[in-house]
Each structure stands twice: as C-alpha cells, then as structure tokens.
Amino acid sequence: MLGGYAGKILDVDLETGELKDKMPDEEILRRYIGGKGLGLKLIYDEFRDDMQPFDPDNLLVFSTGPATGARVPTSGRFHVLTSKSPLTGAVGSGNSGGKWGPYLKFAGYDAIVIRGISEKPVYLTIIDGKAELVEAPEIWGMTVPAVTEELLNRAGTDPKKTSIACIGPAGENLSLISCIMNDEYRAAGRTGSGAVMGSKKLKAIVVSGNQRQKSANPEMLAEKVAESMSLIRENPVTGPKGGLHVYGTAVLVNIVNAHGAYSSRNFQQSYFPEADEQSGEKLAESYLTGTTGCWGCPIVCGRKSFVPDGPFSVKYTEGPEYETIFALGSNCGVKELDAVIKANHFCNEFGIDTISMGGTIACAMELVEKGKIPEEKLLGFNLRFGDPGAMVECVWRAAYKAGFGADLALGSRKLAEKYQAPEYAINVKGMELPAYDPRPIQGIGLEYATSNRGGDHVYGYTIPSELLGIPEKRDPYSTEGKPEWTIFMQDLGSVINSSVICLFTSFALGLPQYAGMLQAITGMELDPEKLLKIGERITNLERHMNNRYGFNRVQDALPKRLTAEPTPAGPSRGQVSHVPEMIDKYYELRGWIDGVPTEEKLKELGIA
Amino acid sequence: MLGGYAGKILDVDLETGELKDKMPDEEILRRYIGGKGLGLKLIYDEFRDDMQPFDPDNLLVFSTGPATGARVPTSGRFHVLTSKSPLTGAVGSGNSGGKWGPYLKFAGYDAIVIRGISEKPVYLTIIDGKAELVEAPEIWGMTVPAVTEELLNRAGTDPKKTSIACIGPAGENLSLISCIMNDEYRAAGRTGSGAVMGSKKLKAIVVSGNQRQKSANPEMLAEKVAESMSLIRENPVTGPKGGLHVYGTAVLVNIVNAHGAYSSRNFQQSYFPEADEQSGEKLAESYLTGTTGCWGCPIVCGRKSFVPDGPFSVKYTEGPEYETIFALGSNCGVKELDAVIKANHFCNEFGIDTISMGGTIACAMELVEKGKIPEEKLLGFNLRFGDPGAMVECVWRAAYKAGFGADLALGSRKLAEKYQAPEYAINVKGMELPAYDPRPIQGIGLEYATSNRGGDHVYGYTIPSELLGIPEKRDPYSTEGKPEWTIFMQDLGSVINSSVICLFTSFALGLPQYAGMLQAITGMELDPEKLLKIGERITNLERHMNNRYGFNRVQDALPKRLTAEPTPAGPSRGQVSHVPEMIDKYYELRGWIDGVPTEEKLKELGIA
C-alpha cells in the first residue's frame, strides 16, 4: 500500500441511497496521484459522450491527494469534478482550501463519488469512517452560513474537527454560476458545480474524524518539508513579510493595474484609474479585522474583514480575494471596495462563483449600455456600469433568480445569447475570464484559450513569470516561448491540483520539491520529469473527454474583443492578444491536432 | 335578479381541477351586499372550528360588490378573504384597488371561491366568461412584475382590458406577512393571504372580458353619482386640489407627526424629528414622476416614482403610501425616503405587506438593540435602527427566507416569541400596527384592539374625525364618545368594503350617498339605517367566526407598551392609550360579552 492515502473511496448512489466503499487501484494512484487526476479517472471510467449536466449519471466527485492532510505546507486543499459542467458543457472542475479536504481524509476517505438524484433533499455525513445519508428537506433553502451552523450543531462532534461542504440557494436554484462552498468562506468556485450538486438534491457533506495517514518515509518527509518551509518563508511573495500574507491576494490590484492589465467595464478597458481605492492596501487600511489561513498553511493569505457603516454594511466576513475585487469591482466599473466586500459576502452566503458573477454582471451592464436589453426586461432595475448598489443587487438577484436575476443566473454566455449579442460575453468555453487582461500578457491569454475548463487562470498560471519575474522573467508583451511556458504551467498545475497542494507554493517551490515531498509521503519513485509526465497525462485525459463532448480548436479561442480591439488606454495602450498566432505552436508542442490529442499522444500517456 | 351583479360565482377545486359555476343566492346578497360581506358568508357556509391556515379546505375567496365596475366613483376595488389567516389565526381579510376587481366582473363573475391544494403550480384564467386552470411550474418563482408581464403576454387579450392578481416569491415561500398583488403595484396586503394562495400552489388569476353589468335604475344612478362626484370634487381632501391627489396618502406624514402620533423605532417614540425628510412634500419634490389612479377613480392618490441615483436606485415604481413610509421608514428609525421607496418596490415585487414588513423589521431591530437576538443568529448581518441599507436588505431576505430573513418571514409576533421576548412585537392578534400611534389618538387604539383582523386601521377608520375634523371634530386625546364612533366606523367600513367602494370616499360621502348609489345599482330598498345594519351584520359574522376559533376579550388588547409606557417626547408627550377603560363600553354598545356577541345579538342580525 502506498503511503499518505486513506485507502478508500466512498461511492454514493442518491437514487437508491446505497453507500459503498471502493478501494482505489494503486496503479491509478501511481498514474494520476489523487485530487484532480484521480477524480478525472473516476469520471472517465463511467464516461458517456452524450452526458447532460443534470443527468443522474453526471458524476460529482470530491477528491483529495496524498499531500492533503499530510504534514506538508498548504495541505488543506481538495478538488471537485463533475462529468459535465452546466456552465461550459466540458468537464467541470474546481479546487478549494479551508479544512474540509484534510478532514475528509481524517474521516477515512480519499474521495467521494456521487451519482443519481435524490427524491428529497439530503445531506451526507462521514464521521470516523461511517458514512450516512440523512433526509433533510428542512435544510433546503438555507444559506451557506446557516446550514453550516445547523449541521455543525447536529453533528455533535468537536466543531474544531468538523467541516461542512455545501451549496447555497444559488446551487439549489440551478444557477449555472453557482459553486460549492466549504468552511463558510472557501469555494470550489468555477464551472457551476453547485448546480450539479443542487440537481442531485444534495445540500451538504459533513466530515469529521481522527484517522491520520502514515507517510512511507517520515524522515525523508521531515527533511523535504523543512526545505520547502524554508523556501516558502524566505520567498518575497509567500514569506511572513510577503505580499500574500501582508495584503492577501488583493496585493495584486495595484501591481496588475500598473501593468495596464486590470480590466475594467467588461474588458472594454484594460486599466482602472480608481484601482487604488480597491487595492490590498486600501483593504488593510479600512476594512481588515484579521487574517486567516487554510489547514496546514504557513502563508496565511486569507482576510477577515467588515464594513462598519453605510449601505453595504456587514458585521464580519472573509475576503475579498484579488479576483473578486476585479470581477465585482473594476470589471463592473465599481470603485467602492465596501460594495465589493458586501457582494463578495453575498456570493459566499448564497454559493456563487465571484469571477463568473462579476463577469456576468459586467456583461449585463454592457448589454444595457449598448441597448441590447430592452428596458422593460429590467422591471425597474437600474443597471449601469459603476453603480455599486446595482452590482450588489445583482448578486442576490442571481442567487434567487429574482426578476432579472433569472437572466444573471445563466452566466454571461447564455445571457448574451438570449439577447442576441454573444460578442459581449467575455468568456472562453462559457466561463467568464479572470482578472488579467490577456492583451498585454500573452501567456495568460493562451492559458485562457486552451484551459480545459474554459476561461481559467490557475490551471496554467503564467502570471508569476510574466508579471513578477518568478521563477524567471518572461516579457509579458512577447509571444516568444509562451506556448512552452503555458504548457509547462498547465501540466505543473495538474500535478499541484492532484497532490493536492496550494498553487501559491509555486512562487517558492518547483518540481524537485513537489517530487521529493510526494515521494516521501507515498513511497512512489518520483522525479521532476516523471511528475511532469503525470501532469501531462492528467491534462490530456481532461482534454480527451472534452473532445468526446465535441470540443476542438473552435473553442480554444478568446472573445474577439481581446484579439481585435487594442487596449484603448493606460500603461498597456494599443495591445491585443496574439493567441491566434500562438495556438498552432501550442498544439504542435502538445502533440495535438486542432485541439485534439493524436492517438499516438494518448497511447504514449496510457490513455485508452 | 338584482342589478349590478354578474350573477355567477366561480368555484375552483385545485385538488380535482374541477371548475363550477354557482349562482349567488339573492337573499344572501340582500343581507351581505357583496365584497367582504359576501366572502365572509361563503366562508361561513363551510366553516370549521379547527381549521388550520394551510389546510386544503381553508377557502380563499375573491369577491366584488355591486359597485365594483359600476359607473360610480372609486369602483375599482375588490376584497380577499381566507377562512383562517396564517398570521393572526383569525379570519384573513384584505382589500385592494387597481382594475382587477372590475375586470373580474367584466369577465363574468362576482366572486371566486378557491379550495384544495394543487399538486403542481397552476394559474387560473377567466376570459369572457370561460374559466380555465393552467398547469405552469415554469412561472413558479417569478416576481410580481415578471409573472404579470408573462401572463399578460400569454393571455393574448387586449392588455388594457386584462388584469393579473398573483403572489410573489414571499407567498410561494409561505411567508406569514406575504400578500396578494394585482396590477403589479396594488395589494390585498394584510393577514398573510399570499401564503394561503402559495400553499394552494396557485400563482395567479388572469381576468379579462367585456360583460358590463346593468344597474336597476340608471336614471337614479346618474343622479346619485353626480351628487357624489360633486361632493368628492369639492372636498378639501378628495378634490383635485386636495391633499390626496396633490401629495398622495403621504400627505399625512407631516400632519400626523405634528400631532405626535407618527411612531418611531418600533413605537418606542410617537414622534419622528426627521419626518419632513420622508413627507409627501419631499416625495413630490425629489422622487415623483407622475400620478395614477385605480379604475373609475376621480381622486387619483397613486404615485409614480423613481430613485435616480445612489445605493437605492430604482428606475420606475409606484408609491410609497403613507403607511409604507411610516412602517419601513420612521418605525425602523430610517429617515431616508429613497431607501423607503426601494424597500417598497421590493415589497411589491416580491409580494409582501409593507406594514407588517416594517413592523417586523422594527421588532427585529429592537430585539437586537435589547440583546435578545444573539449576534451569531444574524450571520454577519448588521441590523440596527436607522440603518437604511439594513432595512432594505430585510425585505428581500424575508421574501426569500435568506439567512435571518427566515425569521423575518414569521412576522413580529412569532419572531419575538422565538427569541422569548414577545413584548417587543407591537401587534394586535399577531398583526403589526399601522401608522397612527394610538397613545395620543384614543379612537384608533380602540379600532386596533377590536378589529376582527388584528392591528388594523381601515376597517374602522376614526382618523378623519379625530385628526382632521371630518365629518366633525372629535378630540383625539379624549375617550369620550369613542366606543360609539369606532363602532360606527367599523360598521360603515364593513358596508364600504362590501360594496366595494374606496374608503377614501368617506372623507366626502356618507351613508345617504352610499345607500342611494347602491339602491340605484341593485334595486334593493336601502336607507342609511338599513345599510348600517348590514354593516353591523358583517362585522358580527366575522367576529362570530373568530370566537369559534377561540378569540375573545383576551385578544382585544393593545401591546403593553401602548397602554403602560407614556409617549416619551414630542407634541403628544405623556400619553397612553386608554383602551382598557373603553373596552367594556364598546362591548356593551355592541351587545357583546367579553368580546363575544350574545345569542340575542346574533339572532337579531340573522346569523345562525
């Protein structure tokens, strides 16, 4: 048996109510590690080309990796996958921190596979190795904090050793931009997984237990962890005086804006003159009450915050993250950080992905601005760029499909299609774009275009290199070497999300450290090359499934605005994304033809 | 056949889907007129002492009267009744304007009796005499304006001759303070009828038709109408230069505050220093876009309004009424009229009674102020007197039972009971009190205490006499003659709500005018005395049913705050309500013992 794993996968059939333990195949773990890789393989084993998002056999998989809950830095994460995302139509995928991942392992399981649709609302508890489904129509409709409090009370276990993952009203109401929340403020945010969980009538999963996993080589692990901890502590980004700890991810607002890559007003601009008013510095100055970190994390980038007064008052909350400030702030033309904090709080409370929410609001605002949405469809709602109240109102309206909120719950692509103006949905594969304008940062544009889950930045995070010079500087304006770097970061991302470790360690660590720690935990013979090959396998397996859904070169593209409309102002004025010029090189390096891995490539990677 | 009636009652069984026409008994019409009286009799015929609000046989009755849709002033109204109110436990009752009432009659029916619970969401259409139930799960969840627009489109009839009554999300979610809306902005607001309609899974009733009813004596009617029209036009309140038309009902804000009867902060005060900022004058100055009236109304007290900017922006809406400004404004300590307009808009959009909503928010704010609600129950929500943002947030939270909103959806009495502090719920029989502090206005306090539907002001509206000297001045501080006057106004109110005519005509008209117009329409021999006897019969029938539910003297009481805590400041400083000293005289005059009509009284009125 490999070290670091709990050794069991829980199989839940919500239609029959049957719960089964499966033993994970050691060969699969060697080839896919855990987390995202393991989840993809579990989904692939039951794959169906004509799957629909709300079909009973659309699997919902929660998975941890050997590093989850192990004594390594940032071991508090887990991965969520769905066979088919209701937002993108591709495989659905998200990653989250907090403590739910390690607590699932301490409860005795590496992963949970959920199938079927329950007739009545249920929740799942896994306590000390014992899993149980509980019928609970009375908790349906509860917000994330309310159901978290309720189920913590019901569990009767030590609340410090218990964790809840759940959906909010947005997931129940099948909003396509809903997410799965855990520990109240943590989110597996993207691709609408909340709606899949909602369609299954599964409200929450409670985990608690004391089963710690043994590592294969404790001495080696101690040594490798010590090395990694030193690197993290000494690093200017991840260390105790680093930007992430001092200002949270919001430290990026001023940095990215100074580069002219902090998009505004639905990517009509790539620069936001009022960025300083919503920066990490401003957050620390006016709204911060403390910091918070995920389980086992030495970086501690989480923010505790509040808004003491005014129309956006909130007594206590967590966040907002950099991405959220962009999405709900700048991208909506909203400068007021208090409104962003309030809207972020609502996203957490109701279970909505903040990036997709902001991108959808921005899209709606532009559709109104351009006269594409007739006034009577807004039913009195005054929706305009730069209006903080309207932005905040959009969030709860989307969660409850209240009036125009029913349109917002569709996400930007379906919203813009409804009003015959798809060009205003700034998305890739239906998923709203993150907080780096791809026009002045060529590598991240290629990641947006090619990422398997749609408009994503963290599954191939080129930003440290392109903007911060970590581990080495790559000119953001240049396309030179970007296909290579994007591919490397994507496959590294697959490794990180399968381990599961936090992406932010990659500011300080590299493949040698990841390989060393994983080898010490599991006992697998690993080196950087072998590990990266696993990453490539994982990336290709996900791509392969998407191909079978019908995805190919056509979907590997940015919205026209980003390749045809030069940035109009700011430090990066006059730039467009050159994805169309990089994509063939990218495919060639990947061993893909028109976005589809060749049979040789699949064979080489051992994908059937 | 009597004139003025359509001559048919529609009986709808939602369980079986069966629709039947019933002919109204002429003797019943002679004894109960129509509207409230007719509805009460229909409910009484199937009365059950142990009825529960969400039982299938809790009848929901919509009823018009002979004046509805007739060529008399203010003939645009109808009445709604439920056998048992989920808010009060008494008979549920509300009255509304707009055009739905006359359009129901033009569609061929005097009333609709709805029984049973539909398995799936449905709506009812009555078009040109043909009634149909339509299964429509897809409209469940829609807001009031959204479903109104949708069903107007589906009807395919002339939208100017079509009208929709419906519930919003609050009614669907069984909020105890939900109402039934019609014509988007009109409400049969009180006693939680929206929840009864919601429990039956009936989303809306569409009415359209061209069947005008004939009056018994058209010449006499023309003469009587001309007389009433002159009186209305010449009256300083109802005329074209009168306060109601020029400033809407909000004209009362400054008048009532000047008397020290404009309660504030959950009736902790009876005076609001900032009242001028939310007055009818302020509304006209800053937020008004036009006026609007119900069908057949020469007074036109309705307001069209907007909030152009700021966090409470709304592009177009109607209202707010005086009661709403008090309830959501002053009573919550909120001075900002823009926030009140926004909250009023949400109440209309989601189908919530504004008076009960404001009273419940005020109660919650005081429970927080007094430390009765533990902070963790608020889940980060910053709920405080005087906070306009928090007040507005309460409304949509209550509609969707979002977080703490689930508590707000209970109404003030059940909310305060949940937190073991019932003394902070300022209600009578579970219904929140309206906008006249009863401490410096003795008559209205007696109406609040004795009204059959709970804390009500319009079923026995003593205010014109006590505050405005119409038809003659009665000293508001004095108890002298108040039992007599309250009884008279209650029985007159029963007549008005059964005719159905607008209460506001009573500023200008009296029993001779009502009797004359009703006689001309119906052909019944009527005079003031006979008509008032009918009113007494109606008041007593409702009282009798409530007695059978267990109501008696105990429930005919004001909250202790109003009888024991003298008004602390303002023009009326030092006053308490003297209801306990007036109640025995009231009962004696009524022919009741401890709140229960004697057998003699019931016999005298012909109530079995």
Automatic annotation (TrEMBL), chains A, B:
Full protein name = Tungsten-containing aldehyde:ferredoxin oxidoreductase
Annotated ranges, domain Aldehyde ferredoxin oxidoreductase N-terminal: 5-211
TM ranges are: none
Keyword Lyase among UniProt keywords: no
EC annotation?
A: 1.2.7.5
Top-level EC class as recorded in UniProt: oxidoreductase
- What GO annotations for molecular function exist for this entry? 4 iron, 4 sulfur cluster binding; aldehyde ferredoxin oxidoreductase activity; electron transfer activity; metal ion binding
Q: Which UniProt keywords apply?
A: 4Fe-4S, Iron, Iron-sulfur, Metal-binding, Oxidoreductase
**Which positions are tagged coiled coil?**
none
Query: Which PANTHER family does the entry link to?
Result: ALDEHYDE FERREDOXIN OXIDOREDUCTASE (PTHR30038), TUNGSTEN-CONTAINING ALDEHYDE FERREDOXIN OXIDOREDUCTASE (PTHR30038:SF0)
Record flagged with keyword Transit peptide: no
Q: Which family does it belong to?
A: Belongs to the AOR/FOR family.
What cofactor is this protein dependent on?
tungstopterin; [4Fe-4S] cluster
